[in-house]
Amino acid sequence: MHSPARERLWPAAGAILTIDLGAIRANWRWLRDRVAPAACGAVLKADAYGLGAALVGPALLAEGCRDFFVAHLEEGIALRQDLRGQPGAEEARIHVMHGLFDGTEREALAHGLIPVLNSLEQVAGWAGLSRAEGRRLPAWLQLDTGMARFGFSAGELDRLLEDGRDLAAVEPIRVMSHLACADEPGHPANAAQLGAFNAMRRRLPHLPTSLAASSGIFLDRAWHGDLVRPGVALHGVAPLPRGENPLRPVLRLDARVVQTRSVPAGTAVGYGHSFTTRTPSRLATIAVGYADGFLRSASNRGRAMWKGMPMPILGRVSMDSIVLDASALPENALRPGDTVELIGPDHDLEAVAEAAGTIPYEILTSLGQRYHRRYETGAPGSSGEVLQPTGPTVTA
Ligand SMILES: *Cc1c(COP(=O)(O)O)cnc(C)c1O
């Protein structure tokens, strides 16, 4: 798989994380075309789900994306910086989905960020700054249509409208909500939330809407609203647990073998001796562990792949290492320094998540900082341009 030239790029790291920016762009285009004429944004919270907002943001901007979403103000400030100087950056709208804590409004304005207002307090804060600035500052309003997490409940909307002064002081430009069960198309909450959303927004001045995240995009058009907010689908994760995945995989994780050994039957492996070999076995120890974000819950359950052959994880995942069963591989197939696939074409994010008892989102956002990161920009098959992220990384 790896040419010797490529190997030399990362001689010092225990594993290499390869991120295909071209695939992220292709996934965004696919989603954009699916929802048209609705607009398609991109959710880049949590450092673009662990993949690096500093490179994913500019890649999507270049693809034509103009609506970006983060959770925290701090993420919005960082993303504004990451987009600066790129063609189209002036038109990029960055939305802070958590809204703003009291006293941080000026900071948001200084960086040209648009808050999502979730509560009476947040509207009051943004209204206060609007009055001080002598103009109505743009914001989104979030409605809680049945998730009890963010936004105005029907009762809070009553209160917002009763004394309409704060609302009149700001400029609401869009109304949004978020679906709790969109990954189950038949779930009655989907229709209930859509109904609640339509009923609540009729009480506000007419505004464009936003309702669907990745899974909602795969529901009927009625759930799309005027602008969709995909996050995980950009990274190729199947939007629905069953069925064809039309999206392209985006990342692979290759771990290096530190040591191999042959052991007799009855050999206990790893911390707590949670696994004992039943037959004479060949073991391979790789340089990835839970400190890299490879979840400990994959102990005795997950696996790596080598040329399409599974290598089960034996015993517990350690902080910096994992022991794999290499018995099915030809003898001497693996040598120290060789790589095995932990995530990739033979073992996708869904399978990795299932083995760890979690969801692909958690696998992505746990990806650690110790991997050597390699960003590809090319189409599949082409060698592609390789970008190096700024910040600490092992380079040639
Ligand atoms: C995280 C989030 C999204 C993106 O969700 P995905 O399922 O990753 O597409 C969209 N909207 C809101 C409000 C979110 O919190």
Your description of this structure?
It is built from 13 helices and 20 strands. It is an alpha/beta fold. Helix 10 links the parallel strand 8 (171-176) and strand 9 (209-210). Helix 2 packs across helix 4. The longest helix has 15 residues, at 21-35. The structure holds pyridoxal-5'-phosphate. Pyridoxal-5'-phosphate (PLP) is lined by residues 43, 45, 97, 178, 213-214, 229-233.
Spatial separation of the terminal alpha carbons: 19 Å
What fraction of residues sit in β-strands? 15-25%
Tell me which ligands are bound. pyridoxal-5'-phosphate
> Which stretches are low in confidence, meaning pLDDT under 50 for 5 or more residues running?
1-8, 390-396
Q: Could you estimate the helical fraction of the residues in percent?
A: 25-40%
Count the beta strands. Answer: 20
Give the biggest beta sheet.
9 strands, mixed
Shape field: elongated
Q: What is the radius of gyration?
A: 24 Å
Give the rounded overall mean pLDDT.
Answer: 93
- Supply the helix-strand structural class: alpha/beta
Q: Note the total helix count.
A: 13
